[in-house]
Each structure stands twice: as C-alpha cells, then as structure tokens.
Amino acid sequence: MRIYEKIRDIDRRLIFLLIALAVSLPIIFQISFPEITTPMVKKVFDQIDSMPAGSKVLLAFDYDPASEPELQPMANSLLRHLALRRCKLYFITLWPVGQNMIEDTIKNVLLPEFGEYTYGVDYVNLGFKSGNEGVIKVVQTNLRKLYTTDGRGTAIDKIQMLKDVKSLASMALIVNVSAGYPGLKEWIQYGSDPVGLAIVGGCTAVQAPLLYPYYPNQLIGFMGGIKGAAEYDEILRKNYGDQISQRYKNGLQSWLSTEVGKLRASYTGEQLQQRIAEAQEKYKQKLDSEKKELYLGLFRMGPQAIAHLVIMLLIVTGNVTFFIDRRRRKKKTVSSPPAFLRKQEAGPSE
Amino acid sequence: MLTAFVPRSQARPDAAMLVRIRPPVSPRAFDTPSDAGGCITVRWQLSPDDQPGGKLVEGYGIYRAEEPAGPSAALRVNSFKPIDVVPAGTTEYKDSSTDDAKTYRYRLVALSEFENSEPAETPVAQSSLQLFNLNRLNLLVISIIISGTVIFYIQYLKSGRQTFIRKIAGLEAVDEAIGRATEMGRPILFIPGIQDMNDIQTVAGMIILGRIAKTIAEYDTPIEVPTSRALVMTTAREIVKEAYLAAGRPDAYSDDMIYYLTDEQFGYVAGVNGIMVRKKPAACFYMGAFFAESLILAETGNDIGAIQIAGTAMPAQLPFFIAACDYTLIGEELFAASAYLSGEPKQLGSLKGQDMGKIIAMACILFGVFLATLTSVTGSSAILEVLEWFRSFFSVSA
Amino acid sequence: MKRTVPLVITFVVGWVLIFSVFFPYTESLGEDFSVFFDIIASIAFILGGGSLIKMFGAKVIKRQPGWGYALVAIVGFVGTLVVGLLKTGNPEGITGNVLAEGSAIMAVYDYMFKPCGATMFALLAFYVASAAYRAFRAKNTEAVILLVTAFIILFGRTFLGTLATIWLPEQLDFLKIPNIASWIMIVLNQAGNRAIMIGISLGIISTSLKVILGIERSYLGSE
Question: Is B97 in CB contact (< 8 Å) with chain A?
C-alpha cells in the first residue's frame, strides 16, 4: 500500500487522536494567544460600559453544563463588567439547569469579588420557568403572572428590587448568554424587539451565523463562542484590568481569613496548623493562577486555535490524497459504486 | 447597597470645577398606543449636556407621582418616587407599571458622575386599553396575502388542474433507503428531532414518519423510533399503528418500536448512538428540529455505513447534515415533504402557494433595493420618504 | 368522532391564536395556551417514564442482548428520581431548596450529569474534524468555493490569521484575513441565511395552514 493510500484510508481514530492532542496540549501548557477585539464584540462592551449605576439589567443564562466550557467565560466576564458598572442584576433562565449555572456564577464571581452586592437589593435570581419563549411573552407584559417567588423561594413582593418591576419594559438592558433554543434569538424576537429594549449577548459558535441577520439593528452586539469571549476578555482587561485584579485578590484574602476562622473553630494543635497550611497553599495557587481564573476566554482560545490549525492541515492532506487518487483512477477504469454511496464516492472508506 | 439616584462617585471634585448639568428638554407623557393598557410612554429631548461621546451625562433618572384627587402642589412635590434610570442618549421610557384608573405625572433628571440636574416635569397622563393593535396592521396585511395565496392554490389544484413540481432528491431516495434496509434485513432508525409536538418541525417529521410507516408496514421492515419527548412518543405510536392497520397488518405492529429515552439532549444522543452501534440500522432518517447533536448522530450513522436522509429547518445544523448525510432536506423541503410524498392535488397546492410567497418576497426585496439605490443616486427626499415607508411596512413592533 | 373532535379543536384554537396577535386584550391567550401545553407535556412525561421502565425492564428480565445497558439506564432513572423526590441528604430537609449544596441530587448533578453532558458535547470537536476531513474535497467548482471559504473562516478565527496579514497598510484593511472572514459571515452568509429563513417561514405558514384547515391530517393517524 502506498503512502497516499494509507493517508486516504486513514483510520478515523487517528484523526480523533490528533484532535485530542491539539486540544489537550495547549490546556496542559496553558498556551494563550493575543486577541484583537472586533467591532461586534466591542459594541457589547460599549453598551454595558454606558450603563449608569443602578440600571436594571436582565441577565438571562440559557445554557447547561454541556455548553458551560464554551459559555462560562463570557458569562463571567459579562457579570464582572456589569457589577463594575454597579448595575442591578436580575438573573433569569429558560433552561432547567440554567438555575445551577446562575448560582454557580454568583458563587464563583459575584460573591467573592463584589462583596458589596446584597441579595434582593442589588441582585436577584428569578430562577427557571418552563415554557420557552412563552415565558418571555408573559414577562414582556407582566412579570408577576409567572413569577410569584424568586428562584430561592422568596415571595416576589418581599424583594426590594422587584417592587417597581412590573414587566420586561422596566429593564434598561437584556444581557443573554445562550447555547441554543430558547436563547438569544427568542429574547430578541419576543423580548427586546417588541418593547424596544436594548439587548446584547453571546452564544455558542455554532449558533452565531443565525444571529448575524439581527445585528446591528435588533441586536446591538454579540459574541460567538470562545473567540468572542476571548475578545471580550481582552477589552475588559485593557479597561478594568487593575480593578478586576484588585477585587480578585481581596476576594481571595477574605476567603482565606474566613477559612482560617472556620478551621480555628473546629480544629486544634497540629491538625489546625496542617489545615491552615493547606488553605494557605490553596490561596497561593489561586493567586498564582489569577490571569487564568479571570480571563477564561483567552485561555480557552488556545486549544481552539490549535485545533483549527489541525483541522486545516487535515483538509489539506485530504485534498492532496484526493487529487493523487483521482489522477490514478483516471488511468484505470473503475466500476461505479452503488447508488446510495454516490455522494461519498471520493471519500475514504471508513 | 446601590441606590438609583445617588451619584456614582463619592469623591466630589473641586467645587470650582463642578459644572451644573442641564435637565432633559420638553418631556411629555402619553398613553402607549396599541397596547392592553397599564403602560405610559415618557418621551423627552436629550439634555444639552448629553452629547454623543461626551462623558458628562451618564443617564436619566425617572420619578413618578400619582396625581392626587384634590391636587395641591406641595403634596405633589413630596410624592414623586424614583422608578428607574436609563442610559445617556435615551429619549423614551415605557412605564409599564401604571394603573388605568389613575393619572400620573413624571419628572426627569439628568445624572452625572457627581450630581443630578434640576428636574423637568411632564403634564399628566393616563394609560388605557386599545381594541386593535394598529402597530400590527402591516402584519395582518402580509398574513392575509401569504395565507390567501396558499389557500387559493390549494383550491385551484383541487379543481383538477395540473402543475409542475420539481424533484426533491432526498425524498426520491426514501423508498430506496427502505428497500435497502429490507434487503439487508436490518432495521430503519427514525429520529424525530429533540423538540416537542408544539414545534412545527416535529409535526412535519411526524407526517413523514406516517408516510414511511406505510411502506415499511407493507415490506415488514423493522423500525426503531427513539424519542426525546413523551408526547412525541405517543403521537408516533398512533401514526405508525394506523399505518400498519391501513396496510392490513395490525398484528405486526408493536409499541416497542417507538419508545422514550430522555428529554436531556446529550443523554438522548448517547442513547441513540448506542442503539446505532449495537443494532446497525441500514437506513437512518433525521426529520425534525435538531441542535448540536446533529453531527454526533450523523457521523455515527456514517461510521456504521447507513444510508442517511436528514431534514431540518435549523439553519445552524444544515451544514453538518449536508456534510455527513447522503441526502438533506433543506429548510422548506422538510415542510414540502408531506405534500410531495402524498401527491394529493390539495397538498401540492400548498407548495405552489409557498412558491408564490417566495416570488412576492423576492419582488419586495428587489423593489426595496431599487428604491434604496435610487435614493442614494438621486438624493431625492421624496423617494427617501417612500423608501422609509416601505421599510417601516416590513418592521414589526409591539 | 376520533378524528372530528381533534380537527375541530385544532381549527378553533388555531384561528383564535392567530387573531389574538392583533387584539391587545387577547394577546395573552397565546401565553395561556403555551402554559396548557406545558401542563399536558408534564403529564405525558409519566407515559414516557413508564415506557422507559417497561421497555428496558423487559430487556433486563429476558436477558436480551445489551441488557446491561438497559440495567444502567433503569438504575440511573430510578435512582435520580428517588434522591430528587425524597431530597436525600438535603441539609435543609424535605422542605428545603432542591438545589441545596450537599444533597444527593446535587452530587448526581455535579459528578455525573455535568461531566457526562460536557463529554457528549465535546465529542463534536472530534466529529467535526472527521466530517471536515471527508467533506471538504475540491471535487468541483462549488466544492472549491466551499473549501476556500471554510479555510478563510477557520484561519480568520486563529491568531495566525491575524498575524498573517497584520503588515497590510490601513488602506488595505479590508484584505486582512479576520476582516475577510467577518465580511463572509456578515454579507454572504447572512444573505444565504435570510433566504433560507424566508423559505422556512413560508414552509411553516403553509404547513400550519394545512394543519389548521384540516387538509393535513396524517399526524392524527392514517388518511
């Protein structure tokens, strides 16, 4: 068997192995590349940056654990930016497990870095309601028709920041992070567009082509996949890098002191010393990985960029073997394959 | 704690440097038109200090007061309550928390980093319910034209006239795929997408399943229909059972052909992939609404060497299906399939109506492009006005 | 009777919902009906769960090929259902928030559901590579155009794409690869997408009309 035949009939497990290496090596060696923020992403940044303090912002997190690796970076960065602008945050989700995504993001970003944010006063989690775009249509006219309690079970009327919120029209901006249906498209069609509300957001790279038709008239700006998140991270770092870094450090510091306090209450002697040393070690680790923790998008773009290059390489080799094969085939007469394989006649036999 | 109307910066600049910002100009409040009541629109002109790119005005704060029954100015001043803030550059606010029985008055202040402007006050306004949503009149006209065309052609072909329908390769191949599965003695796998029965794509998928079921009932080809929604399962069972009954072989039908796996997207994919690898179906049909699972399913199907026909109206998934399947019904072809496969004149009429709709859409696009080009070439304001009207006719608002 | 009643319901509800769009007072009807649908779909879930247990249970009992997988499915289904309903291990007790940290359902979510879902989604990366390897062949003119476009988009989304044309002067900005990539997305791709969407919308309108008018009834069973 000639080399080109070997490449042509490549076992697809070999392709899988190549991709696995292309993705895992940059993760292991923490490779990241510089990014330039494109206009579409910059518009998201500018919109959020123009929000006055106290603006009501609806943060819709419509994704699940499966798409978390792709969407969490942008969710974190959007939340950081909104909190830096001191907006009032109304979390909502149309995905059942979106509730967990919201709580995780609050726990990992808002609470440690923005200690001044108080639940019910500065942010609230409205939680999940089933009904997809139906939910948007209802809240567009009347929030209380569907939401009698927030996601944590507290009656709506007892929550200070919900007292003057009757419907979607009370918001100044919708920020959506979505992995599919229902998501950004539905928020535009049934939420922002009918009431003339501004909307920005982000989605998975696969969904991005579907949103271009709405940009820039109905959708002010958006981010597609990790690439979009990386560009947002870049511009956020440029404008607020110092503040974000300071808040991260302060958050870690206060985590360490609470942790030590807790340990002192439950352990004594040598065991206490050992546990405190462990906590300090963890603190140090987190401090060292500050950039990686704060700019997930930039770091997750590394594996994606390398994987893109590998796929391009695969396409090139695929085509080279295809041309060699075709030249050789022309010399021989080949019987035509069965009808159902017609479309794949040139492909490798797998 | 954040309070809407407290200036953002605590550190006030030197008193000498402080420039008093000016309030927004000529504010007015009126009942929001074409709504179900409970909403008042407040409109104003920007504060002279609110310039594009300028950093002075950060936004506007909106206050509201209910007009008391026996009005006294002093009472009113104290009853204004802050309701919202909007970003700089905004000139409209919809207050959707009003009571139709009450009258309201609004006050607007421009907000800067350090201070608030003097308030500007609107006259009184009251919200009310409107019977017909005039904003959607254009939508009604378009709906009547498009639906009318479809209904007209259905009637037209019902009366026995002939028409030309182009061949759709993916549908021509359906019988071939079933034939191949029958010859090989292996099952057919039918995936109706991962959405529920309220998605029209699932309905279209079910209709195609009905046609396929008729053929397999005749050939006695085994079929597997794993579903991701319970309602889809019950509907599919009903359809396939009827098909077997119509073919005169009710005994060959079993409920086990159609079963529910899970609502969870990737759990469902894992389940279906397992079925594919173990049972090695000879033909796979993917008809309905698909998301990220499309390529995972289609690549696995490709790996086991099945003949694959997909149909979806999810534009993002079409490239994946086209790359990995033998035939793909693109968007509208999925909806055309039922009419195409049935061959009934009244069904084919709907296809003709759809095509007329496309011609109307194309004509409108061409006309719009022509007007826009003419406007930019001539610079005529009269044509611009026509263009603006034409554009607004095709924009939908609340 | 079995056919007529559903057809009448479809006809009436269909027209009422279409007209409700144009009358502000009835606008919320659509929302009410979508809530009705959710209720029906939730009840139907019992049918789904029942079917799952019956199918996979029979497989396990009869030791049919692949019964081990069926057993895993049943154990997973019943186990998750039980710990979710009983709120096992929930520090706030049976009345507490179902998502409270430390409960068994959260452990299932964190250590099984999350990693399994992400793994399945991540498979896409591998399948995209193998599908691209097979599909992007310069077989004819159209395929060459497709190939070149794919190349520009892929390249434009990497750092190398940015670096490759960074030396171009400002007047030739539009020739920079990331800019060509976004031009392809915004102009060419958008035009195609819009055309497909118009076609799809017309397809939806005509299918919906056929269903509402009772011309298409095969979804109710045979002709």
Answer: yes
Q: Is B341 near chain A, with CB under 8 Å?
A: no
Work out the mean pLDDT of chain C and round it to a whole number: 86
Query: What torsion do the CA atoms of B69, B71, B74, B75 make, to the nearest 10 degrees?
Result: 10
Query: Are residue B142 and residue B216 in the same domain, yes or no?
Result: no
**Cβ-Cβ contacts under 8 Å, A45 against chain B:** none
Q: Are B245 and B370 contained in the same domain? A: no
Instruction: Identify all chain A residues contacting B178, using CB atoms and an 8 Å cutoff.
Output: none
Residues B260 and B357 in one domain: no
Please tell me which residue, A224 or C134, carries the higher pLDDT value.
A224
What are the two backbone dihedrals, phi and then psi, of residue B367, each rounded to the nearest 5 degrees?
Answer: -60, -45
* Rounded CA separation A50/A135 (Å): 28
Return the pLDDT at B397: 61
Question: Could you give the count of Cα atoms lying within 13 Å of C70 in the half-sphere of its Cβ?
Answer: 20
Same domain, B291 and B381: no
**Domains of chain A, with CATH numbers?**
39-233 (3.40.50)
Question: What is the average per-residue pLDDT within A328-332?
Answer: 76
Query: B264 with B386, same domain?
Result: no
- CA B243 to chain C, closest CA, distance in angstroms equals 6
| B240 and B307 inside one domain | yes
Residue C186 has a pLDDT of 83
The yes-or-no verdict on residue B327 having pLDDT over 90 is: yes
Residue type, B192: P
Residue whose tokens read 């998140």: A229
For residue range A104-113, what is the model confidence (pLDDT) as tens digits? 999 999 999 9
Q: Please name the residues between 288 and 327 in chain B that touch chain A, using a CB distance below 8 Å.
A: 289, 291-292, 302-303, 307, 315-316, 326-327
Q: Is residue B189 part of a domain?
A: yes
Q: In terms of domains, do B114 and B209 share one?
A: no
Q: How far is CA B392 from the centre of its chain?
A: 20
How does residue B169 score in pLDDT terms, banded at 50, 70 and 90? confident
Interface check for A150 against chain C (CB to CB < 8 A): the answer is: no
Same structural domain for residues B57 and B101?
yes
The 10 Å Cβ neighbour count of residue B79 is 14
Distances (CA, A) of A55 to A122, B29, B42, C140: 10, 21, 17, 55
| Chains B & C: contacts with CB separation below 8 Å | 209
Domain assignment present for residue B398? The answer is: no
Tell whether B128 is covered by a domain. no
What's the structural domain count of chain B?
A: 3
CB under 8 Å to C80, separation ≥6 — which residues?
Answer: C105, C108
For B245-301, the pLDDT digits (tens) are: 988 899 999 999 999 999 888 999 999 999 999 999 999 999 999 988 999 999 999
- CA gap B35, C114 in Å, rounded: 43
Yes or no, beta carbons of B229 and C34 under 8 Å apart: no
Please state the φ and ψ torsions of residue A159, each to the nearest 5 degrees.
Answer: -100, 120
DSSP B18: -
Q: Within an 8 Å CB–CB cutoff, is residue B144 touching chain C? A: no
Question: pLDDT tens-digit profile of B342-368?
Answer: 888 888 888 888 899 999 999 999 999
H or E element in which residue B146 lies? helix B137-158
**pLDDT value for B377:** 94
Are A71 and A102 in contact by the 8 Å Cβ rule? The answer is: no
Between B9 and A190, residue with greater pLDDT? A190
Chain B partners (3+ C-beta pairs within 8 A): A, C
Residues of chain B with pLDDT > 90, as a percent, come to 44
Chain B environment of A122 (Cβ under 8 Å) = 1-2
Residue B315 domain-assigned? Answer: yes
pLDDT at C73: 92
CATH of the domain at B243: 3.40.50
Residue B89 belongs to a domain with what CATH number? 2.60.40.10
Assess contact for A23 and A57: CB atoms under 8 A.
no
Range of the domain at B21: 15-121
